[in-house]
From TrEMBL:
Pathway in which this enzyme or protein is active: Cofactor biosynthesis; adenosylcobalamin biosynthesis
Keywords recorded for this protein, A-Z: Cell membrane, Cobalamin biosynthesis, Membrane, Transmembrane, Transmembrane helix
Listed GO MF terms: ABC-type vitamin B12 transporter activity; threonine-phosphate decarboxylase activity
Statement: the UniProt record of this protein carries the keyword Transmembrane: yes
Protein name: Cobalamin biosynthesis protein CobD
Gene: cobD
Lineage: Bacteria, Pseudomonadati, Pseudomonadota, Gammaproteobacteria, Lysobacterales
Amino acid sequence: MSTVLAMLAAVWLDRLLGEPRRAHPLVAFGRMTSWVEQHFYADLRASGLLAWSLAVLPCVALLTIVQRVAPVWLAWCMDVVVLYAALGLRSLREHAQPVAHALAAGEMEQARKAVGRMVSRDTAALAAGQVAAAATESVLENGNDAVFGALFWFAVLGAPGALLYRLANTLDAMWGYRTPRYDRFGWAAARIDDVLNFMPARLTAFTYALCGHFEGAMRCWQTQASQWDSPNAGPVMAAGAGALGVRLGGAAPYHGVWEARPELGVGGAPDADAVHRALRLLHRGVVLWLAVALLLGLVLQGGLHA
């Protein structure tokens, strides 16, 4: 039951405070990984695995040891703080809402600038529907990466699990690119993130289905997810698009080149309302997860007392 209470407390803290404005732990982690990359980089998969291990495993091991020797109340507080730092639910809303508001007001330049803070694609030439699609895709995909994935691994392994997941996800964002520099060095970061996200991504996709248009979400998941490059983003985005009843994917500009991507979902192009609906879908999913966790906690506690 303490795990469930820690989840509730961490989500409440995220809703109340959002991401730390100063001295975010991931900023320090980013500096450390830059040092590791500088000293251990080689165009080899083995070097990438070594660098990943040096960046992630000592942090997870230290947290595990400290929690084991700490008093129960302090270990629980650490659970809450680590999970809170791993979550990005409020941050997603704070990034997505300005996009939707600018689109609704017809302020395209502002909308493009706002969505540029959410995605890595070029945004200067995007039309209104493409801006809305980019924001909606970011909400759906990051719903897994910044919310449900952290909750899943916290439920399985506690604070060390949430920390492992968040650091691995961060390294994937830093090193997991198919570029000449990172194709081999970043291989381990990308594959480990794929493994850690396998179950959370599918639970996220099913959550979107339960909290949206179920039949549309499941149909899109089954027929479209495999077309996407990422084995985990495919189910999440296909199910999310189907749950919302909008069309996502399609060509998008990266580094001055329009790249072809499969289309996901059903219906018409998204608009400002689709961004708001994606946020509501995500929040309903979080409420569902917390309710299920609370119910399971009560059932298990009752079984222990029986």
